[in-house]
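INPUT
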Amino acid sequence: MTYLLLSNLSKYYGNTLAVENFNLEVERGEFVSFLGPSGCGKTTTLRMVAGFEVPDQGKILLEGEDITLLPPNQRMVGMVFQSYALFPNMSVADNVAFGLSVRKMPADQIRQRVSEILKIVQLEELQKRYPYQLSGGQQQRVALARALAIRPRVLLLDEPLSALDAKIRVELRAEIRRIQQELKITTIYVTHDQEEALSLSDRIVVMNKGRIEQIGTPFEIYNYPQTEFVASFIGQLNLIPVQVVDRERGAYRIGEQTIQIEHSQRIPISDQPKLAIRPEEVKLGKVDGWNQLTAQVRQISFLGAIVRIWLELEGVPLLLDVFNERKLELPKVNEKVTISFPYHACWVL
Amino acid sequence: MSKRNVLWSWFWMFLGGLYFFLPLLATFEFSLKARKGVYSFLAYERVFADPLFLRTFIFSLEMAVFTALAGILLIFPTVYWIRLKLPQLRGLIEFVSMLPFVVPAIVLVFGLIRVFSGAPFFLTNTFTGTNVLLVAAYVVLTMPYLYRSIDTGLQAIDVRTLTEAAQSLGAGWGTILFRVILPNVRVSILSGSFLAVATVMGEFTIASFLVGIRAFGPYMSLVGQNKTYESSSLAIISFALTWAFIGLIQLLNRGRVQTQIAGAH
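OUTPUT
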């Protein structure tokens, strides 16, 4: 039996579509991320699971129980908010204990549980502090501890790292994954940050305009995007208009130059086909047995570990990423260069 | 700021101070002249010795406390619910909360007497009934102060997210309202309550029509008509009371500001 089932969920605000026909099966202990741009319906879907929004259509089943219309306080679903939402009048320990005291747990058990959970989030020392005395990262750890203390059936995180600075975000990201794996808690994580989703999730649900674009593991989503939206939303992607020469053989033309792709491609192509290739798959120079094309260098950007080269291929811009190294020899701006990429590294949308 | 500007600032402040404090000082000085030829607190002694002073003062204080409590119970959940579920009604509620400033107290009290003195209420037939009516009228009269304070307090916290966080942890509406929201707007509620208490303590029109000399406002007016020095001393006492309330509000607000500054780190 599926642990959490979202079946045919739809939600409208007036005439505006927020979520349409959302279907998802989440297994026990799985970490699933909803990824998409602002307004794509990811938070609305999460709020329907939490009980803060009622779907106009569809069902939510948790462990086989229909919770679609159950009030949020009866769902046993923990939630972590972007703005932390700690109770300002309560200390760290009281915040964490809140859900337990609401459930009328005996005081000694509450103390023990609070201590356990604060140990997990490494905030034991700060039990007596108040939210205003904590940094953003510490506050979000407390919020996480508070949500976990009630042993929720599902943990929901709504962009929990968005308000934090970059360094803390990376640290806390690893912490969230560690805790999730330690407690084996089923988690749904909403984010618009692809790096977060890719690094944390067992599976990612990519959403756009209220609909699911693709569901898959981070590897599948990055390497085998099934729509142009997913391909361009996740990571950097070159999209170059091509003409079909022989679709069966995987032969296409860019201007006067021909290319070959692996013909086992699964995605149907559009009326205006485009070659899709990641910048890191394109190499400078000739490589035998690969596609070889001639392009002109337009600009070179140094990004630290990576050097990004902006090329022009038959009048269309193309990005190429090279790993930085001390003895790296770079072409000059306006120089004509040969670039290569393997047949399997590209696909046509 | 240049030295010349500083001097001008002090000059205007001094002028403003004179405007506010000179009449007060004159009243105070006059209240000390009850004994011929020397300054004394005789007028104050007479006021405090009058059993009616204490009786009316306690009665009005009781009415003020009941007004504040009833006002909080009525307005706090209403404002909270409007902020949470019906934000589109905020404009209307703000307008309604301002009506007591527009409708004169005399109109309000005549309306109340007309409606509640007959069937089926007959509230003005008993002391308790009249007191209930008085508190009800005061709740209306002080609504702008309480509404403004509570609304400002709720504006300062993220009501929706705190409510949802509490709900996700299993809390019902009572727990959310009294354990999560109320403690975080405590200072605003207290500020509003003190303003309400100060207003009720000196209120004359409604009290004189409903309870007459039993209330502090009509008592002060009566003393003012009959006893020259005692009326001045009563004016000073009521000023002192109002200032004490304002001082308390400042004290509580200072605590809040310090918390906010600390929270900003």
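end of record. Residues 257-265 of chain B have pLDDT under 50 and may be disordered.
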